[in-house]
Amino acid sequence: MNIEGQCHCGQVAYRAEIDPQKVAICHCNDCQALTGCAFRISVSTPREAISLSGTPPKVYRKIAESGRARLLYFCADCGSPLFSSGEDPDQGEWGIRWGSIRQRRELAPQRQKWCRSAVDWLDRIDALPAREQE
Question: Which pTM value belongs to this model?
Fold first, then answer.
């Protein structure tokens, strides 16, 4: 599937070819802290399947809970998280952050990982009062 995406302010943009079956939720403590939310949704794809345009993203190097080094890419202007990769960014898979993808409504998660860090209230969210808009 071809997708397009960008940061919130539009300075960093991309196009990519992805497999919708590779959309995943991560509940790890790092993803919770970096998103300010209960989990992060990403889709993995080979680096060569991503074409960047606009301003290059800024990179933050983090040692994950697993002990592996991760490179986290974000917009230097608005701070939107965009990608993650391993230590060698030109090798292997990149994770594209679901929130930056224009076609995100078409991309439902297919698996979860780091579930031992998942919040225990997530399965009750449908029972909360809800509004269409605020």
Answer: 0.90
